[in-house]
Amino acid sequence: MDLARREAVGAKFSAEAMKRAQALTWDATGKIAAIIKPGMRESEAIAASKALLGTLGMDRIWHPVLIRFGENTLRTFSERSENDPVLGDDDIYFIDIGVVFGAHEGDCGFTRTTGTDPEMQRCADDAKRLFDIVHTHWRTEKVTGQALYEFAKAQAEALGWVLNLDIKGHRVSDFPHAIYKGGKLGDLADTPNGGLWILEIQIAHPTRAFGAFYEDLLV
């Protein structure tokens, strides 16, 4: 499939509407983080997040609200959480939401910590740091999606983390993007254009049972 077909959009698509949807999704994610506290179960955090999203003027949720605590931060989007853990006082978690605003898909995620564990904090910080490094590489070098994730893997290792290559990014667009069948960003043999692809970074600690996640729109 050629790049034009992978990057197809609908008649109602607007680059400005995409940016607005992403900005509103980031705002929503920040509001969700503010209500997640130690002592909550993962399921409670997800239920509270869905209730909050319902007050923010969204059109709909386009992918399940994903919140992972502790060891579940190692699990991919398609994997179910193990048990229903309680967030500890010295813990790590991430949020991943996909929400439609103005008929366009926003999708973002980030990792936070609840305590002072230095490795957890560094992991959370480095997920964002690695995203920024990879994003800049795409903007300056105009590499393919495949090369972008090869670069991300090497950069993750240089920082002391293991990149989860089962998570390779994906299309977004006017809702629903799934009809365009863009595939995974990390499998793309062409250079992706801005405003249409989500770059996902999921890293794992090399020896401890936790990881971190960060995603945003390539722009």
UniProtKB/TrEMBL annotation:
Annotated InterPro entries: Creatinase/aminopeptidase-like, Pept_M24
Pfam families reported in the protein's UniProt record: Peptidase_M24
Residues of the Peptidase M24 domain: 16-177
Protein name (database record): (Fe-S)-binding protein
Species whose genome carries this gene: Pandoraea faecigallinarum
Organism lineage: Bacteria, Pseudomonadati, Pseudomonadota, Betaproteobacteria, Burkholderiales
